[in-house]
Design brief:
This protein is mainly α. It contains 13 helices and 6 strands. 45% of the residues lie in helices and 8% in strands. The strands form 2 sheets. It has a 3-stranded antiparallel β-sheet, covered by helices on one side. It has a 3-stranded antiparallel β-sheet with strand order 4-5-6. Strand 4 and strand 5 form a beta hairpin. Helix 3 crosses helix 5 and helix 6 runs antiparallel to helix 7.
Length: 324
């Protein structure tokens, strides 16, 4: 059946998918994805619903992403800046199901997200909290009948394995890879940034002339706004990323980044091991303790001004260059 002009389109995607029928409509020259559906009949119904109310997505087409964008402005006023950042970080872990219409989501979808997380109990607990909040919001908007956040499990609060630093041989192997995946790992190993801080790094946060970057989003207040000199070994990587991307230097979800990281390190390290490696190496090189705390974004009673002087930047650069 041929659809009328400007009505929209239905495309069956390849592969073994639960919801293979994608519904789209062209608006102002751009393709708007209305949703993904199990059958062509449901896809046609969603497209018909949208054309009847073009200013409002039909309930059957509202995705988890749309719901999150509606929920956050309502919830954010009650949160601290770090609280908002925590939810934003948790949201990155559910992006694998973010494009699925709310009404099509199942318990298995949410539980699958948590099962795939190779992180601590505390991190999983935060993601479960976000799922709980989004489900409550969806129920209020008559998009969902039950709160899956009350049903999903995150296991026991077992002891997470201690962080272990990379060896020189392992770091050298990353340099030999020369891939997009190894780029991220090497930047972490020569800046001490947290993974979330790296994924939030934008082109505007990089000062190529003075060779430093600014961490604008961090899980802690002490970590925000700090300056990290760009080590000479990763400068070509940073410059290449800046030429390729105008916004985020690593436009990838936390989950996918962690998967790539695990693959290139043969599952022997977590992203946080990079931060632990930087701290260990700087300590072994007798770096200035205040400079190390400033680079890592740790609380320090001796450093209160986040806008460092030129002398301060030189001190930080002297410390970061101790990394080999």
């Amino acid at each position: 059946m041929k659809l009328p002009n400007n009505y929209g389109s239905i495309t069956k995607l390849s592969g073994n998918r639960r919801r293979p029928f994608m519904v789209r409509k062209s608006l102002d020259g751009k393709q708007l994805v209305i949703g993904y559906f199990e059958s062509k009949e449901k896809a046609l119904q969603a497209l018909a619903d949208y054309n009847r109310q073009p200013d409002e997505l039909p309930k059957s087409s509202i995705t988890l992403t749309t719901l999150y964008k509606q929920w956050l402005p309502h919830h954010a006023p009650n949160l601290s800046k770090s609280g908002v950042a925590s939810y934003e970080n948790s949201y990155r872990h559910i992006q694998s199901i973010a494009s699925i219409p709310i009404q099509n989501l199942t318990y298995d979808d949410f539980q699958g997200v948590l099962d795939a997380m190779q992180l601590s109990y505390a991190s999983k607990k935060k993601v479960r909290s976000l799922i709980n909040q989004l489900c409550k919001f969806a129920i209020k908007k008559d998009l969902m009948q039950r709160n899956f956040g009350d049903l999903v499990t995150i296991g026991k609060n077992s002891k997470v394995r201690p962080h272990k630093p990379f060896t020189r041989q392992q770091i050298n192997k990353l340099w030999q890879l020369n891939t997009a995946e190894s780029d991220g790992a090497l930047i972490l190993l020569y800046t001490g940034m947290r993974c979330g801080e790296l994924l939030n790094l934008r082109r505007r946060d990089i000062n190529l002339k003075s060779k430093y970057l600014t961490v604008t989003k961090s899980k802690t207040k002490a970590g925000e706004g700090r300056i990290i000199p760009i080590h000479k070994r990763i400068q070509p990587i940073i410059e290449s990323r800046c030429s390729q991307y105008q916004d985020r230097l690593f436009p990838i979800s936390y989950t996918n980044f962690a998967k790539h990281f695990s693959r290139i390190t043969n599952g022997k390290h977590t992203t946080h091991d990079c931060r632990h490696t930087v701290a260990t190496m700087l300590d072994s090189a007798d770096a200035n303790p205040n400079a190390v705390r400033a680079i890592l974004g740790h609380k320090n009673g001796d450093i209160t001004d986040k806008v460092y002087t030129h002398k301060g930047l030189r001190d930080l650069r002297r410390a970061i260059n101790l990394l080999k």
